[in-house]
Each structure stands twice: as C-alpha cells, then as structure tokens.
C-alpha cells in the first residue's frame, strides 16, 4: 500500500471506531443468544467467517425455531444480497487483479461502504478497508464475550442499541449522499419501495428492492 | 455435520462469493455513462432503505414493528437538522430510545 493509501486506511480506521463499538455490543448479544443453540465454539466461528450481523441473527433465529439448515441459509443469504449492488457500485473504484479485488470485497459492511463513498459513484477502497478493520476483531471478540461471560450488557433493546444502527445510516445519508435533485429523489423513492415491501416480504428483500431506485440515474 | 455447522459453512461461502461478485466481475474498468449514473445513486437508495427498514420493520421480517426506535431515530434526525455532527446524533438515538423503554 502506498503511503497515501496508508493514510486513507488510517482515516478510515478512525472513522470506523464508533461503529465498531456499537458492533461490539451487538456481537455480545449475538453470543448470548447463539450459545444455548450452538455451544461455545460455533458462534465465534460464525462471526469470524460470516461477519454479517443481520444475516447471523436471522440464520440463528431460523435454526432456533427448528427451521433447518436450508431455511437458515436462505434467510441469511437474503439479508446479505444487498452486498451485490454495493459491490457493483464499488467495483469501478477498485484496481489490481481479481484476487485483490475479491479480498477488498470481503471488507464490505454497510457502514464502511457508505462512509467510503466520495461522491459521483466513486469509492475510496483503502478508507473502506480501514473503516472495517476495527469492526472485525470487536465483532468476533464481542461474540466470544457473549458466549463465555454471558449477559454482561443485559437486554440490548434497553440500551437503545437497535436505534443506533439506523441512526448511523441516517447520518451517512444526510451528511454524505442527500444532495438536492436526483440523489434526494432517489433516496425518497428507495425508502418508499422499502416501506411498501416491509409487510409483504422476508427480511432483506425491502433493502435489495430499493436499490432499483438508483435506475433513475440511467436517464442522464 | 450438524445443521448448525452446515449453516455456518455454507452461509460463509455464499457470503464471501456475494461480497466478491461485483469487485471480481466488474472491477477495475470504467462503466458506460448510463451505468455510472446508476452507480452514483446506489448509496442514497440503499442508505434510505436501511434507515426505513431498521427503524420500522420487525427483525424477523414480514411485518412492521413500531416502537421506541422511531423516537430515537427521530431524535437523531433533529440533531442533524440542528447541524450537530454524527456521533451526538447517534448517541441521542440510543438515549431517547433507552429512556422511553425505561419509563414505559
């Protein structure tokens, strides 16, 4: 990595710390929830190799309800499919061979991807990897804390943890993306698509479908 | 292999392929103009949808779940409207949500 790249990685790392603390708390609650079903090792391995909060909670909930592996995998995949449009948007900003690009893609998480957007459809990959870097160890470590130390934080809902994540996304939207004109129109259309689909579709579908709002940009 | 381990291994592999798909298939080259216009708008579309879903939807999907999160995210929106930066806005969301749940 060039020295300029290292600097942007460092800036991303700083930007990602607050989000990583929220991820730590969520990971603790995941460890607490998953331990009775999966034992001590599997939840930590799951956090290390899947590294996707919503998908892990969804798959675990299906398993806990006796839904079986196929249904659990389907639920998790549906929630992670939003990384397809995110990866497509990221792709033109990437350089290097396909293995290097595939590796950078593994750093895709909602927060880092949005924080690395520099406008006009361009992304800063070094910033994105840096912003994900603090979340990974805290996500895996938080899961271990939840598994072994149990209910240190109590009910995450009582802490308002479930309001923190949409608040982060709202900040990224308002501060980074909500320019007047077409971007604001597309944000409105995207939220409307999601709103209409929430009661009728499985978790994950409303967000993926909302990406269709970006097709308004093809008219330019 | 148990259901749990099958789920973990398959979900990990599929997630890795999903995350790599765009970067591997489309990476490192410029897109035509129309595609660039679409790509520039993926972030506002997805972020707006994430805000709506994570504020209003039941975690298991298929239903609304209207609770104290709405007031919390509303508090964050008010902070942003008052030109406060992101961290105070996020903190306000957590505090308002937690306080409403504590008194209800």
Quick synopsis:
Chain A has 12 helices and 2 strands. With 220 residues, chain A is an all-alpha fold. In chain A, a hairpin with a 2-residue loop joins strand 1 (117-119) and strand 2 (122-123).
List the keywords.
heterodimer; A: mainly alpha; 2 strands; 70% helix; globular; B: 104 residues; mainly alpha
Structure description:
The complex is a heterodimer of chains A (220) and B (104). Chain A has 220 residues and is mostly helical. Chain A has two domains: 3-172, no CATH class; 178-219. Chain A is 70% helix and 2% strand. Chain A has twelve helices and two strands; from the N terminus they run H-H-H-H-H-H-H-E-E-H-H-H-H-H. Chain A has helices spanning 3-38, 41-49, 53-64, 69-80, 83-90, 98-105, 110-115, 125-132, 135-149, 161-177, 182-197, 205-210, and strands at 117-119, 122-123. In chain A, helix 1 packs antiparallel against helix 2 and helix 1 (3-38) runs antiparallel to helix 10 (161-177). Chain A starts with a helix and ends in a 10-residue tail after the last helix. With 104 residues, chain B is mainly α. Chain B is 74% helix and 0% strand. In chain B, helix 4 packs antiparallel against helix 5. At the A-B interface, helix 1, helix 2, helix 3, helix 4 and helix 5 of A face helix 1, helix 2, helix 3, helix 4 and helix 5 of B.
SSE map:
The complex is a heterodimer of chains A (220) and B (104).
Chain A: H1 3-38, H2 41-49, H3 53-64, H4 69-80, H5 83-90, H6 98-105, H7 110-115, E1 117-119, E2 122-123, H8 125-132, H9 135-149, H10 161-177, H11 182-197, H12 205-210
Antiparallel strand pairs in A: 1-2
Chain B: H1 3-26, H2 33-39, H3 42-56, H4 69-81, H5 86-103
Helix pairs in contact in B: 4-5
Helix/strand-derived category of chain A reads: mainly alpha
Order of helices and strands of chain B: HHHHH
Radius of gyration of chain A (CA) equals 18 Å
Into which percentage range does the β-strand content of chain B fall?
under 5%
End-to-end Cα distance of chain B: 45 Å
Tally of individual helices of chain A:
12
């Amino acid at each position: 990595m060039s020295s300029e790249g290292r600097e942007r990685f460092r800036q991303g790392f700083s930007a990602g710390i607050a989000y990583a603390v929220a991820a730590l708390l969520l990971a603790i609650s995941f460890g607490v929830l998953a331990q009775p079903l999966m034992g001590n090792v599997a939840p930590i391995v799951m956090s290390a190799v899947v590294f996707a909060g919503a998908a892990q909670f969804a798959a675990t909930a299906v398993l806990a309800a006796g839904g079986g592996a196929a249904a659990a995998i389907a639920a998790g995949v549906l929630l992670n499919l939003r990384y397809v449009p995110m990866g497509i948007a990221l792709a033109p900003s990437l350089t290097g061979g396909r293995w290097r690009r595939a590796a950078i893609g593994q750093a895709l998480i909602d927060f880092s991807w949005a924080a690395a957007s520099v406008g006009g459809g361009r992304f800063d990959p070094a910033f994105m990897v840096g912003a994900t870097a603090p979340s990974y160890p805290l996500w895996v470590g938080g899961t271990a804390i939840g598994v072994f130390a149990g209910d240190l934080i109590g009910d995450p809902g009582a802490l308002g943890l479930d309001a923190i994540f949409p608040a982060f996304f709202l900040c990224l939207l308002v501060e980074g993306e909500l320019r007047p004109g077409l971007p604001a129109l597309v944000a409105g259309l995207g939220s409307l698509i999601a709103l209409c689909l929430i009661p009728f579709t499985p978790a994950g579908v409303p967000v993926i479908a909302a990406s269709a709002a970006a097709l308004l940009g093809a008219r330019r | 292999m148990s259901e749990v381990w099958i789920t973990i291994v398959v979900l990990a592999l599929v997630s890795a392929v999903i995350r790599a798909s765009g970067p591997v298939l489309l990476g490192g080259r410029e897109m035509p103009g129309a595609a660039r216009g679409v790509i520039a708008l993926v972030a506002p579309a997805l972020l707006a949808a994430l805000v709506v879903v994570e504020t209003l939807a039941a975690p298991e999907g298929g239903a609304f779940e209207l609770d104290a999160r709405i007031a919390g995210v509303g508090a964050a929106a008010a902070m942003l409207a008052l030109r406060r930066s992101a961290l105070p806005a996020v903190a306000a969301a957590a505090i308002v949500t937690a306080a409403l749940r504590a008194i209800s």
